[in-house]
Amino acid sequence: MIFALVDCNNFYVSCERVFNPALENRPVAVLSNNDGCIVARSNEVKALGIKMGVPYFKEKPFLKKHGTAIFSSNYALYGDMSQRVMKTLAGFCDDMEIYSIDEAFLDLSNLANIDLCDYGQQIRRTVRQWTGIPVSVGIGPTKTLAKLANHLAKHGNGVVDLINCDNIDSILSGTPLTDIWGVSRGYSNRLATGGIGNALQLRDTDDHWLRKALGVVGVRIAHELRGQVCYDLEHSPPQNKTICSSRSFGRPIESFDELSQAVAQYVSRATQKLRKQKLVAGRLTVFVMTSAFDKKQRYYDSQSVELPVTSSDTGELIHYALGCLTKIYRKGYKFKKAGVLLEQLIDKDRVQLNLFDDVDRGRSGKLMNVIDKINSMQSNAISYGAAGIEQKQKWKTKFQMRSGRYTTRWDELAVVKAR
DNA sequence: TCTGGGGTCCTAGGACCC
DNA sequence: TCTGGGGTCCTAGGACCC
Fold it and tell me: How many angstroms separate the CA of A73 from the C1' of C15?
């Protein structure tokens, strides 16, 4: 097999730069929801020593001093740009797997006779020209090695091929364990107890020992490093097993009313996703928690309910969710986050009817259809009263530095001024 | 003041069955 | 007095990913 992993460089930052070229060669960072953590960094920010995922408030003064441009997450923009990149990549292979918003595995097995590095460069040039997004290309005989090649490509000229490579051993011996796909600190520490400290040692470790230390997951990683395919391309993403909607609040909330508004909103979002995939849920869980960083008070609880009939009806599920919330709500706590989890998802056409069902399923389905249709034209045009009035939702997640949704909103198109 | 969100897979242990 | 073995299913928790 020949796998190529194409990964967008500093993806969220690159998206911002496409529509704001003044950001080129400047430090730029993008924040997570609620403007909490730093989740994307330009090379200039990486060079300043800012690590992935650090809380923004801790680095704010330092970043400001260095003239860093800061953005809230703009998922409408990133999602749309991602689609453009993926569409472009599809033209370069017979088969691909979209692995995340900014990565795809390409199957290049049919191209064994061409110069793979040249092909990689061609992919980079085209994606850059058609979408404005810079990418790196890693090529290998397994996904794990393609991943590693991509990691190396980021520090070189953008393309690395580990198939036609005569010094693979020395590359692997210079690769720390945590640079390997699937190995994080926990595994790396366990491996260290066996005297394994780099990718080459891991590749050549005895399977029995690995099986005991890391289970089958560890054995697979070693096999992949040996060039033996354990993870093939995955097609048409397998149907979701769970759907979760949860958010931290813009500020802590204490009242049951506000908490229930947030939960109703999350149910609404989760059921929308559910219907989009033509699924229904059999079980619903609500959880609430105080801030994990609050030393004085800490509270977490969750409550689940098995639905009498599987459903995707927003109103019905809000009803059950608020029932759960009543059981876990505690007065006096400052809640920072809540969420809704939908489980036991099945195809909507395979619904098991209940003799004592008192909901008119046909009617509810039509209503949901109409709501989804209208909301697809303008999001949140119709929402449930239980979620509260938008202007008064003080718990809403913060996005104080969001750029324009240039590609998905007519009223936020980029404006080019003539000089 | 301020610390993301949404997933998957694997394993161990308990409940239950014959 | 004496108290099996083998299996399935479910759940919670841990590890990992981007």
Answer: 27
